[in-house]
């Protein structure tokens, strides 16, 4: 079973948030990304992409993972060289359409378009883990 | 009704201050604390961010936040033995005194599993 607090080994630059999976807490995650962006002096375009992708991932957890039950969102942010990795984990029924929607929606496609890379681990019973990587510099900023 | 606590764990380093002050400020606003108490909460967050890294048991500063009706509680830890009191003492400012003690409505040190946890409660009892 995926365990949010053990599935991602800690690093010396990690930020980890564990929050109740409620809509209002998605704003907390966005706010933390804003603080991180300021502290690391990230490019605005990168921050915008990161906020949108992470918002999609967290909203997916809030809407679909727990089916009305209480649950948590675990978000780990790791600056890693030229990449910034964000891992969003839940312990619910994993990613995917909820019973009240007809299809998978645009969330994952949007995340794929906004990230440098992303991968999903999911299970019907043990939750899901979405790992997103972002480049800290845009190509126009002279990144090698 | 208060919601389950939120946990923040930040590697002891330059990101502790910027991240913790934002989260604490947001939860203070959510708790409907008035502006002066919100400022107090952010000041406490800044002090914890500055002083806690010397007293944690590992490489991260861990804070649990619980907001209620016009109240906010921060639980800082795990801290090493004696770290709870030391963190509060370290927050003293010459000529001002101990800032955390002056701003908090409640201050407790809990020992659990061999580690200390500092509870700081800020509240507002005035009429909205």
**Percent of residues in β-strands of chain B:** 25-35%
Name the pair of protein chains with the most residues at their interface, and give those residue counts.
A-B, 25 and 21 residues
First-to-last CA distance of chain A:
39 Å
Tell me the CATH topology of chain A.
Heat Shock Protein 90
Residue runs with pLDDT of under 50 for 5 or more positions of chain B: none
Count of discrete domains of chain A: 1
Main pleated sheet of chain A? 5 strands, antiparallel
| Main sheet attributes: strand count, strand direction, barrel closure of chain B | 5 strands, antiparallel
pLDDT below 50 for ≥5 consecutive residues: which ranges of chain A?
1-8
Question: Can you characterise this structure?
Answer:
The complex is a heterodimer of chains A (144) and B (128). With 144 residues, chain A is α+β, with helices and mostly antiparallel strands. Chain A has one domain (15-141): 2-Layer Sandwich (Heat Shock Protein 90), CATH 3.30.565.10. Helix content of chain A is 33%, strand content 27%. Chain A has three helices and five strands, in the order βααββαββ. Chain A has helices at 23-40, 44-65, 107-114, and strands spanning 15-20, 72-80, 83-90, 117-123, 127-135. In chain A, strand 2 (72-80) and strand 3 (83-90) form a beta hairpin. The termini of chain A are far apart. The relative contact order of chain A is 0.21. Residues 1-8 of chain A have low confidence and may be disordered. Chain B has one domain (9-123): Histidine kinase-like ATPase, C-terminal domain (Heat Shock Protein 90, 2-Layer Sandwich), CATH 3.30.565.10. Helices cover 35% and strands 34% of the residues of chain B. In chain B, the strands form two sheets. In chain B, strands 1-2-3-7-6 form a five-stranded antiparallel sheet. A two-stranded antiparallel sheet of chain B has the order 4-5. In chain B, a hairpin with a 2-residue loop joins strand 2 and strand 3 (71-79). In chain B, helix 1 packs antiparallel against helix 2 (35-51). Chain B starts with 5 loop residues before the first strand and ends in a 5-residue tail after the last strand. Classes of the chains: A alpha+beta (144), B alpha+beta (128). The A-B interface holds A 10-20, 22, 24-25, 27-28, 31-32, 34-36, 38-39, 70, 72 and B 3-4, 6-11, 13-15, 18-19, 21-23, 26-27, 30, 59-60.
């Amino acid at each position: 079973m995926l365990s949010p607090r053990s599935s991602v080994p800690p690093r010396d630059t990690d930020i980890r948030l564990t929050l109740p999976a409620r809509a209002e807490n998605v704003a907390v995650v966005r706010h933390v990304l804003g603080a991180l962006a300021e502290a690391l002096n990230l490019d605005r375009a990168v921050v915008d992409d990161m906020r949108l992708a992470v918002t999609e991932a967290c909203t997916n957890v809030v809407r679909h993972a727990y089916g009305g039950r209480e649950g948590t969102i675990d978000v780990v942010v790791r600056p890693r060289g030229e990449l910034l990795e964000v891992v969003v984990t839940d312990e619910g029924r994993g990613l995917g359409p909820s019973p009240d929607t007809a299809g998978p929606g645009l969330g994952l496609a949007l995340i794929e378009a906004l990230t440098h890379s992303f991968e999903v681990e999911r299970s019907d019973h043990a939750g899901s883990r979405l790992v997103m990587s972002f480049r800290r510099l845009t190509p126009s900023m002279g990144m090698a | 009704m208060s919601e389950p606590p939120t946990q923040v764990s930040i590697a002891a380093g330059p990101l502790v201050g910027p991240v913790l002050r934002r989260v604490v400020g947001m939860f203070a606003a959510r708790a409907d604390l008035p502006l002066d108490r919100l400022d107090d909460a952010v000041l406490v967050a800044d002090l914890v961010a500055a002083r806690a890294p010397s007293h944690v048991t590992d490489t991260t500063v861990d804070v649990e936040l619980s907001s209620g009706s016009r109240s906010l509680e921060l639980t800082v830890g795990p801290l090493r033995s004696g770290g709870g009191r030391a963190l509060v003492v370290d927050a003293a400012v010459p000529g001002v005194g101990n800032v955390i003690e002056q701003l908090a409505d409640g201050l407790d040190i809990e020992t659990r599993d061999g580690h200390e946890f500092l509870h700081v409660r800020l509240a507002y009892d005035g009429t909205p």
